[in-house]
């Protein structure tokens, strides 16, 4: 059914569609852009090939070329891949302690980011405690205490203690006793991944049982960050990534690789050395930065908007002049499906707003009507008056419905056109009426 349906649409519109050939240049450009942004080569290949697969045959909008449209598709897909919406932390309610474990290599930005997150959560109304469990670097505890003073968040530290796990155990009971509801544990990193580091983190992890295990990865290290994330995820288990130092001029390709390799969301982005420079992660901004083709993307967006407006105007004209055909009616079904609701269709029509019964749209009725119209020839759809008894019989058997159903649809359609004509001046009534059909 969907095949014939899209075939029909193509026939009707007569516009060109995306083929491997007419987007060749764009594909090359995209590959280069992604590699320049330091996206892993394997990820680039897989990503681009999948997107070509998906985009093949898609209708090309007027006023843009197939390559440009493909770039927009790549952008949208990348946004989806990066996480369609911004992901926050999965913390427990305010009366239960939510431990958060930080991990990452030395210098990646763990200590700074712990403090940034503590400040953020404090502002959100939680009661955080910072825990100094990096006992390797001599000045690490002091660094965290200083940051604690700046943010006004208490820091738990045990003087002279050499074992991070012991600090964590004591911190847990301290936090519970003093009714902190969030505990952010800073740990030590090494210059490179090694077994000692992993064992230490694993041990802390099993004692702490964190609700969030966050890996801090330096955006500037690119591909290396991906390897590190993979390793931590396999050996300790992470729930998300914070990409630090995003204020450097990196294009951020690591983000895409990180997500596609670990399947774990990027939750925050560090954008400076200052304590408040931690931002929520925005997939669309990240995609634009990685792809670096914002101009083309907004060009295509504009074209899409224009077409939508034109379609809406055309629809309105048709409604008013009663040249609205069954083919138009059918196209509204597709549009409704594409946009998710009739409400948005109605809102697209200038001056038309109304409350639409969503249930009526997903009903069997709509599917039935769609099937009936699809079984008609184009000629029949454009002029339903030619549909006599024998055509009705043919259409019914072609659509797996009955002549009764076909009759009902045609009668309803006639009535609808008549009412539309009468009501062209009353937009509100129009909307209400549309909702009945
Ligand atoms: P750790 O060894 O993982 O604890 O890393 P630190 O928190 O000590 O940070 C290492 C360095 O990176 C410090 O000089 C921080 O100021 C700096 N840093 C951390 N996050 C950011 C960031 O988002 N942007 C910039 N520009 N610098 C950062
Ligand atoms: Mg540190």
TrEMBL record:
Which UniProt keywords are listed? Coiled coil, Cytoplasm, GTP-binding, Hydrolase, Nucleotide-binding, Ribonucleoprotein, RNA-binding, Signal recognition particle
- Please name the InterPro entries in this protein's record: AAA+_ATPase, P-loop_NTPase, Signal_recog_part_SRP54_M_sf, Signal_recog_particl_SRP54_hlx, Signal_recog_particle_SRP54_M, SRP, SRP54, SRP54_GTPase_dom
Q: Which family does it belong to?
A: Belongs to the GTP-binding SRP family. SRP54 subfamily.
Subcellular compartments: Cytoplasm
What role is this protein assigned? Answer: Involved in targeting and insertion of nascent membrane proteins into the cytoplasmic membrane. Binds to the hydrophobic signal sequence of the ribosome-nascent chain (RNC) as it emerges from the ribosomes. The SRP-RNC complex is then targeted to the cytoplasmic membrane where it interacts with the SRP receptor FtsY.
Keyword rRNA-binding annotated: no
Q: PROSITE patterns recorded for this chain?
A: SRP54 (PS00300)
Task: From the UniProt record, list the reaction(s) this protein catalyses.
Answer: GTP + H2O = GDP + phosphate + H(+)
What are the SRP54-type proteins GTP-binding domain coordinates in residue numbering? 265-278
* Amino-acid positions noted as binding GTP in the UniProt annotation, renumbered to this chain: 104-111, 186-190, 244-247
Task: Kindly name one Pfam family recorded for this protein.
Answer: SRP54_N
The gene behind this protein is: ffh
In Swiss-Prot or TrEMBL terms, this protein is called Signal recognition particle protein
* Higher taxonomy: Bacteria, Pseudomonadati, Spirochaetota, Spirochaetia, Spirochaetales
Source organism's superkingdom?
Answer: Bacteria
Which species?
Marispirochaeta aestuarii
Task: Give GO cellular component annotations, separated by semicolons.
Answer: signal recognition particle
Q: Which GO terms describe its biological process?
A: SRP-dependent cotranslational protein targeting to membrane
**Subunit annotation:** Part of the signal recognition particle protein translocation system, which is composed of SRP and FtsY.
